[in-house]
Amino acid sequence: MTAPHATRTDADAALVVAGLHKRFGGTVAVDHLDLVVPRGSLTAMLGPSGCGKTTALRTIAGLLAPDAGSIAIDGRLVAGPGTFLPPERRRIGMVFQDYALFPHLSVARNVAYGLTGCSRSARRRRVAEVLDLVDLGGYGDRLPVALSGGQQQRVALARALAPEPGLVLLDEPFSNLDAALRATVREDVRAILRAAEATAVFVTHDQEEALSLADRVAVVHRGRIHQVADPQTLYTRPASRFVAEFVGEADVLPGTRADRFSVDTPLGRLGTTRALGSASGAVVVRPESLRLARDDAGSAVVTAIAYFGHDQLVQVRLADGRLLRARRGPAMDLRRGDRVEVSVEGPVVVFDDEPAPAPAVLAPA
């Protein structure tokens, strides 16, 4: 499933990508991709490694030329039939995965690098403004090597924002940070982009990062966008089975249509969020919707428990051998080998005529 076709008539869009196609030899990296990014929004392009998201970003930036399709930034065509503007003429700011700071230049000179065509005093004022914006006022004379990873990230962002671009592009911006720092820095980056009233697109393979940071998430698979939506809609109403399984945790059960909005499954009859059009389909069950009750005569057995402190993921085996996961609170009231009765809270998402994947397996607790 692809997103609605983009056109250059989207008046409120900072970026419109229509039919973007890019191949390397016999390999198609981006397959007629469409994307519309509203002004002032933060959009994530989320997908597995090799799905084409970074190629799409680099093509939007002008670092790669498309084989087909068009790109418009703030209503101006920058790539299309007979048109290809280089990166410096696209009014974009770019934050690279490795930050790409000049190690021999001070923080202030790194930030000032993209400020051309203005007086020395104006350049100095703008550098001071953006360093204050990223909470690095007073760091202008330092070299990048003297800064932490999070501070270098903010210098790279300040450099991207300094020329007041129409669009900021970020390529896996948090992948070089350790896990303890990543959550803090991404909240800082979100706040900075908001304060600057910037429009930004970032690519990531991290679902948590995309859902927690972005206003809208575009899920990319095999060079195409399967769905663009706000995080809640993406999670609760996925447009395809790939989106359902890639975004968040999900187990899939076979289902047989009972009536228009219910299916019979190994867990009994379940209500659905949409009508099942065929006689059978794939039923997506989220771990948080599964309820477990200890019952010596229960139909399932606890096989593994992964404990995280704030919650736990409990794996159970159904009578037919299928494995399902349930997310529960921190109370350790179940043990491996306990028999439980399994129920599902709320309606489930169902897709027509999809085979069930191999069950997920947790390491024993």
From TrEMBL:
All residue ranges annotated as the ABC transporter domain in the record: 15-247
Keyword Oxidoreductase set for record: no
Gene3D superfamilies according to UniProt: P-loop containing nucleotide triphosphate hydrolases (3.40.50.300)
Family matches, as SMART domains: AAA
Gene Ontology cellular-component terms listed: ATP-binding cassette (ABC) transporter complex
Sample GO molecular function, one term: ATP hydrolysis activity
EC number: 7.6.2.9
Pfam families listed in its UniProt record: ABC_tran, TOBE_2
Keywords: ATP-binding, Cell membrane, Ion transport, Iron, Iron transport, Membrane, Nucleotide-binding, Transport
Signal peptide segment: none
Keyword field contains Iron: yes
Name of the protein described by the UniProt record: ABC-type quaternary amine transporter
Source organism (scientific name): Egicoccus halophilus
